[in-house]
Specification:
heterodimer; A: mainly alpha; Transcription Regulator spoIIAA; 5-stranded mixed β-sheet; B: alpha/beta; Rossmann fold; 6-stranded mixed β-sheet; 9 helices; binds adenosine-5'-diphosphate; binds magnesium ion
């Protein structure tokens, strides 16, 4: 057994470190470092009598070296064996990086909430800027003076429309059924089960058809747009497009935005219809005959309700496209950027959708629509 | 008579508040093969993107011939860019387009050639890089080395005056990368273009460069410029000599194989 580890400050302000530093329990060095740093002149550490070295001691000495560096002091290590000197040289060859890494946002706090609100504000401004730039690109496209390619547009159309039908079918039927159950339970108490048809029709047409479709499309198409565009950013495709004299907004964003604007109203109508069918199934279970349901629908469905939903769909399409394309175009250059862009696209879009929906409903209320 | 085709004057580059390089000044002469060297992360690609106008200087200016590029508007910049051919470090081929469409892009954009002519020129350019017959392949369907060559074909589609390459041979095996160097040299000789090339993988440097600068990551400055063979022996900076001697060993080793 070699003697145990010790550390002490000598009379002439040298730090003496000795013994076997591989032991489980070691003397603490931090307070000794503090005292040592309060002395004048170069910091002297004598390690001649260390019998067994250990990474923990090496790490501590590196820490001391960093402290010395920060205080612009010289550190003299006396009696280090060659292997240790080499190691130390390697570890101190490059000064520690002074910048900071991106900090994680941490847990939810009030401060977080405030900064989240501020972020949303900034975000909104940026989105408006993006919308402005895109609008002029759309205008150039409509005037036939743009770099948009037909193929890009057709592919976007397929992505925004037919490929989304399956999931829209499922969600719409289910939402129609949920609305019917919700209403039926109440209406039956008054013996007015037949009014379920009104509830489902108006609920789907004005509200749920557009909103549910939009949320599905935000998660599907908006996220896909963000992933595609940020991959192109990482791949320097957008740089290449720019230097080839093509406006990336016209080439990449306009076709995606137009495709979504074109497809959303159709999907909303489709969702409305399926929701009403879903409602009929539930109503049937409550004793409402198909004929009663249909004749009730006839009075419930008005062109206004229908148009409110379709207009909402158009506005939602715009918001989803902006959130997705902006997140993609502004993504960073590393491989994590793609993941971050898709998350941002979906989260931003969903927030925009719900805020917009509320605003439109309030506006309709005020206008008596 | 040589004249500067590119003059960079006291260029300082930063991403937001993060300084990358400061006070970089150099000239690229007509017919030069000019190499931007330096360790990875020192800002070579960043410098190239400033030359291309994809990033704006924090300070300083870039001048092409008589035209101050930094102060030019988008239209004027675009006119200059018509005479450039560019390959990017990560490829930059449009992933949704076939190789033929990629190579045709600059022709459609900047020339008045007919569709049939464009198709023929595309075949020629692909043949020059050994990829004729791959017209309908998407970039994802070919190997990394082939993608680099396809990018080269797109870069030379319009017989540019200036070629910009960002690490054209990085990531390739030694033999392919040597072939690509040879190809660049031949293309340069047959078109008389000036070449600005970023590389840190360096058999290329001695093989083809006649002028070079070295960007240092620690001091964030351009610490050396001149002919690379001269630099290897006479640079006052140990890092530059080391960098180039390591490169020379690689080149020698590559030559044996
Ligand atoms: N878009 C960007 N935003 C912020 N920092 C970047 C960006 N691109 C590159 N950087 C950073 O700038 C430095 C130089 O990058 P780059 O020019 O790509 O180096 P290289 O010399 O290897 O080509 C690196 O530290 C890199 O992390
Ligand atoms: Mg690079």
């Amino acid at each position: 057994m070699s003697e145990s580890a010790t550390a002490s400050l000598s009379a002439d302000d040298q730090l003496l470190i000795a013994g076997d530093w591989s032991a489980a329990v070691l003397p603490t060095l931090d307070s000794l470092f503090t005292t040592l740093l309060e002395t004048e002149g170069p910091l002297k550490v004598d390690v001649t009598s260390v019998t067994v070295w250990d990474p923990r001691l090496e790490a501590k000495l590196l820490h001391l070296q960093r402290l010395a560096y920060a205080g612009q002091r010289q550190l003299e290590l006396l009696g280090t064996p060659d292997s240790q000197t080499q190691l130390f040289k390697l570890a101190t060859a490059v000064a520690p990086y002074a910048g900071t890494a991106a900090t994680s946002s941490g847990l939810f706090t009030l401060k977080n909430l405030r900064s989240t609100l501020a972020d949303i504000g900034d975000d909104l401004l940026e989105s408006l800027e993006f919308l402005g730039a895109t609008t002029s690109a759309v205008l150039r496209t409509l005037l036939g003076r743009s770099g948009m390619r037909r193929r890009e547009f057709i592919e976007s159309l397929a992505q925004a429309g037919p490929q989304a039908m399956g999931i829209i079918t499922l969600t719409s039927v289910l939402v129609g059924m949920i609305l019917a159950y919700l209403g039926a339970a109440q209406l039956q108490q008054f013996g007015a089960a037949v009014f379920v048809a009104d509830l489902v029709a108006i609920g789907m047409l004005r509200e749920m058809g557009a909103l549910m479709t939009a949320i599905v499309m935000a998660g599907r198409t908006g996220a896909a747009y963000a992933a595609q565009l940020s991959t192109m950013q990482t791949n320097e495709e957008i740089d290449a497009i720019t230097t080839l004299g093509i406006n990336p907004l016209e080439f990449l964003v306009v076709p995606r935005m137009l495709a979504l604007l074109l497809m959303m109203p159709l999907l909303v109508v489709y969702a409305d219809a399926l929701g009403i069918v879903g409602g009929a199934v539930v109503a049937g279970g409550m004793g409402v005959t198909p004929l009663q349901y249909i004749s009730q629908l006839d009075s419930a469905i008005t062109i206004t309700h229908f148009l409110v939903g379709v207009v909402k769909g158009l506005i939602f399409a715009l918001l989803i496209a902006i959130a997705g394309c902006r997140a993609g175009m502004n993504a960073g250059r590393n491989s994590e950027a793609v993941g971050r862009a898709t998350t941002e696209a979906v989260v931003t879009a969903v927030v925009y959708l719900i805020v917009a929906d509320a605003a439109i409903n309030i506006l309709c209320q005020l206008l008596g629509i | 008579m040589t004249e500067a085709v590119i003059s960079v004057r006291e260029l300082t580059m930063a991403y937001g508040s993060r300084l990358i390089q400061q006070d970089v000044s150099f000239d690229v002469m007509r017919g030069d093969i000019f190499v931007i060297m330096g360790g990875s992360g020192c800002g070579k690609s960043t410098l190239l993107k400033h030359l291309l106008g994809l990033l704006e200087p924090a300070k300083g200016e870039i001048v092409y011939g008589e035209q101050n590029f930094t102060r030019s508007g988008p239209g004027e910049r675009q006119k200059l860019r018509q005479n450039w051919g560019i390959t990017y470090q990560s490829g930059g081929l449009i992933s949704a387009m076939s190789l033929a469409d990629n190579v045709a892009l600059p022709l459609e954009q900047y020339s008045n050639y007919s569709k049939a002519d464009i198709r023929d020129i595309v075949a020629l350019k692909l043949a020059l890089v050994g990829l004729d017959g791959y017209q309908e392949f998407l970039p994802a369907e070919i190997s990394g080395g082939m993608r680099k060559r396809a990018a080269l074909a797109r870069a030379i589609a319009l017989d540019p005056d200036i070629l910009f390459f960002d690490e054209p041979s990085a990531g390739l095996d030694p033999i392919s990368s040597r072939r690509l160097d040879d190809l660049i040299l031949q293309l340069k000789e047959s078109t008389g273009a000036s070449v600005v090339m970023v590389t840190h993988e360096l058999p290329s440097i001695f093989a083809i460069a006649n002028n070079a600068i070295y960007l240092d990551a620690d001091s964030k400055r351009m610490i050396e410029s001149g002919n690379p063979s001269w630099m290897r022996e006479h640079s006052e900076h140990a890092v530059v000599r080391q960098f180039l001697n390591r490169a020379a060993e690689q080149a020698a080793a590559g030559g044996d194989s």
